[in-house]
Amino acid sequence: MPENVELVNKYGEPLRYDRNFQGPRQRDRSCTDVPCLILFVLFLCGWAFIAHYAIRMGDLNKLMAPTDMYNQKCGIDSSVLDKEYLFFFNLDQCIDPLVPITGCKTPQVCVKSCPTQTFVWDKMKNNNFEDLKSRLICKTDEDKAAISSKSDIERAIQDNRCARYYIKSQPFLKRCMFEFSDQVCEFLPSVLLRTRRDSKWLLPGNASQVEELQLQAMALTMQTGLQAQARMAPQTVSKQAPVEDQVGQCRRQQLNGAVIREKMMQTDTRLAKMVGNLVAHFYNGTHDAQRLGEEIVEDLVNSMTVVLMALLFTLIASLVFISLMRWLAAPILWFSIIGVLVGLLLAIYYSFKQYSFWNKTPTVPLHDLNLHKQWQNLLQDPKMWLYLSISVCVCFVVIFLLVIVLRKRIRIAIALTKEGSKAVSSVISTVFFPIFSWVLYIGAIGFAIGVGLYLGSIGPLSFRMVQRLNDAGEVTNEPCVCGGPAINYTVGAACDPKVFQQNCHINQRRDSCIQTTCSFVEIDNPPLVRWAMGYNVFGFLWLSFFISAFSDMVLAATFARWYWTFKKRDVPYFTLTHAFCQTALYHLGTLAFGSLILAICRLIRLVLEYIDAKLKKYDNTVTRAILCCMRCFFWLLETFLRFLNKNAYIMCAIHGKNFCSSAKDAFNLLMRNFLRVVTLDKVTDFLFFLSKLLLTAGAGVSTYYFLDNNPSVIQLNHKAVPTTVVVIGSFLITSVFFGVYSMAVDTLFLCFLEDCERNDGTPEKPYFMSKQLMKILGKKNKLPQRQRRSK
């Protein structure tokens, strides 16, 4: 047989036989879709220019300026121009994962500077009045000015008009955050060394000190940079310890790393507080929720080693499972299909049984309107059981007939799944390649968010003269009169805060307006900046789809080369590296073309969502119906384009053609084998779902069994906590593994279809598929014995 023989396939395409043939077009490649690559590079350069302009012209301080409880921007609005920092009455209430949604409930006021010393009313109430009043931080200056005695202070604190306590703080993003100093230790003997669990140690009337001064204990750990608990463990500090010893121990704790590490294993941490606040939204009782949050955090810390080991074993098990799938794919799939059919038969039996029972048992419907009663009415309705049994019967018949008709194609899908297992096992580095894509994704997300924030801060601030609402939600009627440069200022009109502060007053004594302010509305972005924001959004969409496309093509090129290597043991060791370089050198333009199409489609969908949100207030049935149809259409279009793009990348990896030619070839090839495509897609999806479910459930059950049967190794409050973490982590790990596996099967499927159409098993055109696939299709290679494939 000559080294190279000119041949054509049944479509008249030239084909050159080579003993070292590695695919229809693995050599002599040229760059594809170069104009699209140039456009993409120019687009990225424009994006970089916008980023440079945004960073140079933007000011994040405009966005970071805090807002107090009266919706005033500290240091920006007229009434708080000289108060740049935000003070929290009880910062502990802001340690809640739902704060971005529900907001922080504690009073928040703008102050000129963060507290430079600690104040605790219950400890300092015996100090002189002037000193106490100077230390007070109240909601408004009027509340503080109205205080004339210690009884007034007590009353203001009880009414939550002034803060009961605070500690030395430092500004962080113009928010006053805790700063620990040695002075705080003076308060620890009677308060901070005891928690809510130990509140019985306090004298009557002082129990509130525990809750109030917990933040001071937390400040102790924030200064060290560790989330350690502030309370002393019973074995570390006893109830009878002298005050001086406790204070000394508090100060030594700052320098004793071993003690701090030990405290990290305890529960009263800021993380525990956050979890407790989260649980409080779903669990009855604040105290019980806090206790549960502490126990959850304690379990997480104590079981960290077990969780990491379980995830490591899951990773190893996933690798082993993929390797074993070449033998277990058929049993697992057929067992699953039979199990589904048996389950449907049981559902049919149960539905008919319930129908027969309720049809013979007259009942009176429950008339309550609650959901539980309505559900009971539904379960007692014989018609519901009749319709359900008919539906299940139809499903059973359809699935049973499909299995009978498509049994041969199911066998092909199983064989390709086994081939995918061989491919992934042969090039095991592909399993970890998605990490590279994740890093790029994170970088793209961070860049887009950063550019968006800087762009959003460009432009002058817009202010409006407004009147506050009182506690009843009514508009105040303060007689605020403006003169001089502000003579034209009216409520609802634009204003300047400095001019307003200097020229607007409520009486002849020129007292400043209190209930009427010149408040910040928004940053008035110039039109060009708004276009730049749209450019930034589209850039993120294009870049994210490009990253996904690059990952798909690298994997496709890797698995295609594995398939088109006649002797699989001869697959090069650096196949993934070769595929990476091949994609980066020749096909970036194709990736830019495909990702551009998807980015445009996604942008249209985002615009439709924006239009829908704007039109909701008009409540027009016609417009809602039109928008709903358009959204549905573009969703279907994007789903189809994703499918087409993925197969186009595979064809480009095989043949080295441009995007349009690859998409056309892939579409025609798939349409010529439509039933095989549908069968393979659904069968493999079902098989991969079962595999992920099996591995995830196995990891969770094994972890729970280990924790339940080894209490001496690790003691936990709730075994479900580490088990849940393991289940979530295992599902993510298996999803990554089987995502690569799915790409392998899709690539091998197209290669298989190419192989069937291009080759006929003769010595000039041998099949590259496995012997099992040839056996299923009734094909074989007519090669001399010495050239036959060794399996």
UniProtKB/TrEMBL annotation:
Choline transporter. One of its GO terms (cellular component) is plasma membrane. Belongs to the CTL (choline transporter-like) family. The chain crosses the membrane at residues 34-55, 304-325, 332-352, 384-406, 427-455, 540-564, 585-607, 622-641, 686-707, 727-753. This is Choline transporter-like protein. Keywords: Glycoprotein, Membrane, Transmembrane, Transmembrane helix. The keyword Acetylation does not apply. GO terms for molecular function: transmembrane transporter activity. It is a multi-pass membrane protein. It is found in: Cell membrane; Membrane. InterPro entries: Choline_transptr-like.
